[in-house]
């Protein structure tokens, strides 16, 4: 999963197209589901909870003719602590280096939510594709027509694509338009690259997804995962990972009575990690308290939120 260095040849430069397609929008509109559908691989974790994505995650699609570097970004929000400030930086950074911008909304979102960010999108000089996701939830055609009209007034320069990422509706047309808009360019990454993230990153994301699915309220948002050991052999991987929480009481909740809760997280995580890597996995999980880590710059740097 490591980034691959690209050796340029005449075959990879002449007539080749490549570009960065950055996916932005508010929390819980389906950005990660769309990203996975466009890439054709499960790169981003998906839950029904807001703020699932914390990092900017790249997924790379390669053909002999083009390379598309998709970026999934955290949902745009007003930060309440330093972690969310870093998450917003990832989203705003995606506006500065896009060749094509995908602004994702859905059928229930207020077009004026996070108005300042949307105003910046409206001023973009690069092509903007407005994706109205979850149209399978609409009752009739009249609703969609009205919704398209409202968004056209808000982002008049954007091309609008009504979609359903979960139903794969209109995704192929969206992909086709993205390829048409790609600028001429040699590839940015090796042609066998799937992502810019190392293998350890996906282990932490899988474990964090299970925390989001198995715990309620503030608990999953107060956790972070760090892989301390990733020992890969030909047919197996031995992983040791630490789940950090902010308070002693949270540690007890994560572990659960008799260790049952943490055991369930471990079993579910190991299953998905084995599927992801196609190898047998031995996974050990530990829980540590790191008080107020979401507001501590040193910890955010350690966890990869600040460079």
Can you put this structure into words, describing what you see?
- The protein is of the alpha/beta class.
- The chain has helices spanning about 10-15, 30-40, 80-95, 115-120, 140-155, 170-180, 200-215, 250-255, 260-275, 295-300, and strands spanning about 15-25, 55-60, 65-70, 100-105, 130-135, 160, 225-230, 235-245, 280-290.
- The protein has a six-stranded mixed sheet, sandwiched between helices. A three-stranded mixed sheet has the order 7-8-9.
- The radius of gyration is 20 Å and the shape is globular.
Specify Rg, calculated over alpha carbons: 20 Å
Round the mean pLDDT to the nearest integer and report it: 87
Question: How would you write the strand order of the largest sheet?
Answer: 2-3-1-4-5-6
Query: Biggest sheet: strands, sense, closure?
Result: 6 strands, mixed
What are the segments in which pLDDT stays under 50 over at least 5 consecutive residues? 1-11
Distance N terminus to C terminus?
A: 20 Å
Number of strands: 9
Topology, pairings included?
Elements (H helix, E strand, L loop, with lengths): L9 H4 L3 E9 L5 H9 L17 E6 L3 E7 L9 H12 L6 E7 L8 H8 L5 E6 L7 H14 L4 E4 L8 H11 L17 H16 L9 E9 L3 E10 L2 H8 L4 H18 L2 E10 L7 H6 L5
Parallel strand pairs: 1-3, 1-4, 4-5, 5-6, 8-9
Antiparallel strand pairs: 2-3, 7-8
Helix pairs in contact: 7-9
Features:
307 residues, 6-stranded mixed β-sheet, 3-stranded mixed β-sheet, globular, disordered N terminus
